[in-house]
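#struct-help
A.M.: can someone run this one for me? Single chain, 97 residues.
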Amino acid sequence: MNKSNATKYPRYGKGESHGIPFRSLLPIGLKNFFVAGRCISTDHYAHGSLRVMPLCLVTGEAVGVAAGQICRSQSPDVHNVDIKRLRNRLQQVGLLL
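D.P.: on it. Structure tokens below:
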């Protein structure tokens, strides 16, 4: 491969990271459906770091907590997840957000 044609991606510094938006866990065109792990919607650059097992675990836990929240709600629609409440619960169980 010609190095001049290689894609150059920025690198995060020590202690820096990217977030995973909740909307990346909601596939377009499907109603009341979550995805997690390697199935989430990302670009090629982000997917390089999201396909590893710890992040698959984190997205799976987020989907599980969100599903529980939806099951207890008056409006069972995955697009009505209370994101603030979801983030608070994930932090309570020890996830670093």
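A.M.: thanks! The CA atoms of residues 32 and 78 lie 5 Å apart.
D.P.: also worth noting: The helical segments are 44-50, 53-71, 83-92.
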